[in-house]
Amino acid sequence: MTRIRPLPGQPESGGEPVFDAPWQARAFAMAVHLNEQGVFSWTEWSDQLAGLIKNHEMHAAIHNSDDYYRIWLKALEDIAKDMK
Q: For 1-84, where are the alpha helices, taking DSSP H only?
């Protein structure tokens, strides 16, 4: 299995993702699982997430992992909408 490296801006420690709440880990796992199932490529995912992070940062800073993973969930929602 290929190790998926944390994305830019993703909270991490020692090269591994850090989660402050269970929902954050579940959001992360959903994206990894959907990628592994071929729903989207990791490049498609990272492009989607990077665009949302850039847009968010134009209006407000990402202060903590809650901010980051809320954007992560928005990226999952947007990809799901695009799949229809």
A: 22-36, 42-59, 65-83
pTM: 0.74
Count of beta carbons in the 10 Å neighbourhood of residue 49: 23
**Residue 73: pLDDT over 90:** yes
Q: How far is CA 39 from CA 17, 58, 64, 75, in A?
A: 22, 29, 28, 14
- In what helix (H) or strand (E) does residue 12 lie, and over which residues does it extend? strand 12-13
Query: Residue 31 contacts by C-beta under 8 Å, 6 or more apart in sequence?
Result: 45, 72, 75, 76
**Domain boundary assignment for the chain:** 21-83
